[in-house]
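Milestone M4 deliverable, item 7.
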Amino acid sequence: MGMAVGDYDHDGRDDFFFTTFSNDYYTLHRNNGNLDFTDVSQSVGLGVITIPFLGWGAEYVDYDNDGWLDILAANGHVYPQMDRASQFTSYEQRTLLFRNLHNSKFVDVSGSLGPGMTRPKASRGAAVADLFNTGALDIVLNNLDSAPTLLRNRGANRAGHWIALKLVGDPGRKTPRDAIGSVTFCTAGGFRQRAEVASGRGYISQSDLRIHFGLGSADHVDKLEILWANGGRETVAIPSVDRFYTIVQGRGVR
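Output delivered:
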């Protein structure tokens, strides 16, 4: 159904999260390297709780800017008659947001994030972006036979530091101007994060092409490395945190 790609455990490798049909659990596949993956869904806390849900859009999103990727799932059944036919699932379903506890465990925090998250919906697509340029990632849900849901994040920019990056590639160096396919590594606060400029990964959705790094309590970036889509590497100095930057290939911060 839905698929999210991101490095939830800071080992430098992309891990895969999948939503599924109801009566099955959503799966998190940890990347062990060498094209080997392990299904860790049960051990991290995503197994039993997701069985009644039918998931579509899936995204990794650091909703609290602590520097660790959390997991978002947009849910809703395909059969309206499930409200009458089953006591274990429903047509409209709440949105799920699992907080990363930094110890290879996730916990469902959806119930504490307001009625926009908990109100049942027949959701399909999900996109993530800092829509108001506040340093906090917001969520947009596409709902079947209903208006979209905009979940504005009012707390993350106060909870932790952050930086956001717009990468501009050089077509003369065979990098697309929108830098799709480029990978950025941010070292701050004692760990290294990985993020990509990616297009079209969400189910019928497109999240912001800007890269967002939550930094937690770190008040400076130790190192920022970019692996451009053409294979070129570049290290860029970030003057301060809690700011947006445009980085032009070969020209640094603008």
